[in-house]
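ESCALATION

Customer reports they have been waiting on this structure for their group meeting. Please prioritize. Original submission:
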Amino acid sequence: MRDRFGPFRDAAEAQGIPAVDVERWLATARPCATLTLSDDEAGPVVGRFGGPLLLPAGTPDPDYPLVASIDLAALPADATDLSLPPDGHLLFFAMPEPGGCRPVGTVVHVPAGAPVTQRNTHTWNTANIDAYNKMFASYPQGSLRARAEMSLPYHTFVIPPGSQEATYLPEHPYCSELVEVWEDTKDRIASTGPMQIGGYADEEVVEFDPVDIAASIAADAVKAGYWNGPVSTDATDWVLLADWHAGMHVWNREGSTVHWVIQREDLAARNFDRVFATVSWNP
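Update from on-call: job pushed to the front of the queue and completed.
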């Protein structure tokens, strides 16, 4: 799949970026599964946006509306570098509204063969707020198809551990130029869709890695009592589970993207109740 990056290499060379720096950047590429709604798209059906809410009997009603259900056994082989379970369903829940340092969503893993019952999809809106009902009514519906793709970073800055100052990505002196090249050429290299599993996080305005930001917000949430630790303050201990570009479809949420992130050790242990969700909204 790395052979796909010919247009990227050509554009980077045309800008005078040294080949060694281009190849160092390409070495950071990560596989991901791009999910699309269109029936005209290629790729297997791996789940759906919306639909009935099916949960095991002992699972509490979710605090957030249902976004999508993904059949892990249907994902293309090696579509991501995440240590996902081989089967069962991942159910993604979120409210695409900034929550400060509170999480804005959750994830539930329903093991294969687990008995499930259908729940009311509106129990999260206990106050019956009309604006929230309108928002949820606009959530996308339909089958999701997956394509195995590759992704590159969209961000250029990091804040090293123990520092208060932002710096360009270490070892990548041309990171800003390379991000621009990726933005210019990615449509010729990889498909895009409203949801992505794995890979690099993206949103409407990106300077810092959204995963790094989410890790920082999770640490603040623990301090404020909105979430339970432990939480690593080292951003490299976290990884993107999924992105949802909600603003593509959802009423009154143009420019919003939900990021579901998880600590690597929690992912390895399949503790999906440890997923932390954030939203970026650039109205």
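Sent to customer with the following note: The chain has one domain: 2-281.
Escalation resolved.
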